[in-house]
Fold this protein.
Amino acid sequence: MRSSGRLGFTLIETIFALALLAFFFGIGVISYRNLNQRQLVTQNTLKVVESLRFAQSMAMNNQKTCGVGTLEGYLFERSGNSYDIKECCSGTCNTLRSDSIASDLGVSGFTQVKFLVLRRGVECLDPCELTISLGSFSKKIIVEKGGVINVE
């Protein structure tokens, strides 16, 4: 308690309060950036998994949109950060759907996965894994030979 009866804060108290405020603001900005990076990786991973499951479902149900020819399967084909879902009939593959992964994400792993019709399995080079990453965050999509799609 001050004996002089003055109201207000001293210079030291004000500097200390501003330093604490700056410290907590800095921690908040870093946490928010990490959250955004983690969400970007997760959202793009789920988008790729959804596309893989679409191709898998179309192949398992033997659904074809090509008029003539024998349906061989559905192909997920990646080039860089963009990918296509293609329907393969009698040796010819036609694009059904195209999409892309955010350009600031790193993508490594398989470039093609073919889901064969009527649950005949998957054609993919071993290991059939796709990793999507940004900074210290990454998610791995694994397609097993039987067609099971897992995310780690």
Notes: Helices lie at 11-60. The beta strands are 71-79, 82-89, 92-100, 106-109, 112-116, 122-123, 129-134, 137-143, 149-151. The longest helix spans residues 11-60.
